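Why does residue order matter? Because the sequence determines the fold. Keep that principle in mind as you read this record.
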Amino acid sequence: MQRRIRLGMVGGGQGAFIGAVHRIAARIDDQYELVAGALSSDAARAHESGQVLHLAPERSYSDYRAMAQMEAARADGIEAVAIVTPNHLHAPVATAFLEAGIHVICDKPLAISLHEGKALAALAKQNNLLFALTHTYSGYPLLRHAKAMVEAGEIGDLRLVQVEYSQDWLAAAIAAGGMAQGNWHNDPSQAGPGGTLLDVGVHAYHLAQFVSGQTPDTLLAELSTFVPNRSLDDHVQVMLRYANGARGTLWASQVATGCENTVRLRLFGSKAQLDFDQEQPNALWFTPQGGNRQLLRPGRVDSAAARHATRVPAGHPEGYLEAFAQLYLDAALTIRALQAGQAIPEAARSLPTVDDGVAGLAFAEAVLRSHAAGAQWTAVAR
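Structure:
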């Protein structure tokens, strides 16, 4: 009988939202067992967090470097680590575990610079290790079905891409000198050179690229900071040009009043349109040119990609946690294949990896350059 993959976690201690999401996602398909963690750099908080998660005291660390070294030396050491820290720690933490021969599952963004991202990609490939990036929305069954439809030519030649990620959780003003609103997301030393750009802008970019299969050559971008006393951008708007002649727009905002977590993608082809809003994840709208708008639902659409990502019968809602779990399932399939020296299963090949992270950082770097140049058309690095 196949045993569970031994999983560790860095970050995600008591009170951390995304750490709990990763742990739930890892358990949904019963492929992992959390056995070790450096849940906080504060020793007392790390110990308390480890107790809550039933970790053995000797495997609850306060230093991720010590965790990487000690777990790699154990016969029953972790096989994969989930990284759920602020952005500036993604690269150093991932490097420590990759050098120790441990697979990595990391929250986005991959790093805070394109240089860091490329170094991680090279290290993962050199050591033949999985480096998965949790771009959650690519786990939805209907978005995988949409990708399959685009690949099959069902929308025709791609003409227009419109992608949006809008929230309002940073819409409130910050007191002079204050950092509380947004926590580390407003601190360049931890978030990196982009605020909303690196938090949700890279999500929007990956989603558009994932479904359309197209990467823009050039872009024109403007960053805005609407809230006083904020150090980083809280609104992003970008125009995109693609090699095949298609055009696109991307906007990401965390000051969009009244928006909870609107992630919307619309693709317009020469034959049809696709429309998805993740707040209604059981609905994909397909509209053929000159025809009626058709509602597609998981459990009813017939594609291998959708079937692989669907867990319950039609009419039973699947959402964010299941989409997150899909990435963990695909990571497990990939890890098991690598351990066995086998080819990665076709079903798991939609998993976002370090290469997607590098592409996101190339996009972010181009946005920053375009904005600094007064919103000029700027090439996206390959």
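The chain has a mean pLDDT of 95.
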